Amino acid sequence: MSRKNENICNSITNYKSNNMTSNKYKNITNYIKNKHFTTGVVTLGSVLAISILVPEIALASKFDIDAGVKAATDPIIKGINDHWGKAVVITGTAGAVVGEGDARQRATRAAFAATAAGGVVLALLAMLT
User: Model-level pTM greater than 0.70?
Assistant: First the structure.
């Protein structure tokens, strides 16, 4: 390759590497630094924040916490009161079926599981009522 062709190739390579890749990032950076773009983003963010917060504040001022807690916990307490015996029996049976060993060990494990389930149910009832 002649000296002249080599210089032309080098200048093309330098032009591509300096101008093609860096212009892309310069354009994005310039666009982000653009005053109108920044103002638009701030305005859009402010409008979204206000439209989300204002209805929440209005609803929160009318919200009765006691009624909300009562509405959330009453079905749970009713379900525990109605079905806690079944839950204890199912837990004990599961402990006996899944347990390994002879009959005595399984019975001991079932009694332990039922006792633990009963304790959890009584603790929930004491905590929620």
Answer: no
